[in-house]
């Protein structure tokens, strides 16, 4: 990532034939984390219903604890429920 001074990255898990592995990226500041996560939508830019980026199959997600994962799922469920209620 450009502008990130003290970051480290490494692959997770053992290599498996014909399968890609996760890469963990450790950033030096919360600001770097927010800047990286804010740019993820650019990976999936479309033009005429086709992805225009060579990075369209790259997914970037924050590293969450189990509690944070559960809270995130609950929030997504609540948002989905509200959207369905609005449509009615």
Uncertain segments: none
- The oligomeric state is single chain
**Helical proportion?**
25-40%
Give a quick account of the main beta sheet: strands, pairing sense, barrel closure: 2 strands, antiparallel
What letter string, H or E per element, gives the SSE order?
A: EEHEEH
Q: How many individual helices?
A: 2
Main-sheet strand order equals 1-2
Binned strand content: 5-15%
Shape: extended
Radius of gyration: 17 Å
How many angstroms separate the termini?
A: 44 Å
Task: Outline the structure in words.
The N and C termini lie far apart (44 Å). The chain is of the alpha+beta class and 88 residues long. A hairpin with a 2-residue loop joins strand 3 and strand 4. The chain has a domain at 8-62. Helices cover 35% and strands 14% of the residues. The longest helix has 22 residues, at 66-87. It has helices spanning 30-38, 66-87, and strands spanning 8-11, 23-26, 46-47, 50-51. It is built from two helices and four strands, in the order E-E-H-E-E-H. The protein has a two-stranded antiparallel sheet with strand order 1-2.
């Amino acid at each position: 990532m450009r502008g990130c001074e003290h970051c480290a990255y490494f692959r997770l898990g053992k290599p498996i034939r014909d399968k890609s592995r996760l890469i963990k990226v450790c950033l030096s500041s919360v600001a770097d984390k927010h800047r990286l996560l804010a740019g993820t939508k650019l990976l999936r830019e479309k033009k005429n219903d086709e992805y225009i980026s060579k990075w369209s199959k790259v997914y970037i997600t924050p590293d969450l604890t189990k509690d944070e994962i559960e809270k995130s799922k609950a929030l997504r469920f609540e948002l989905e429920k509200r959207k369905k209620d609005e449509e009615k």
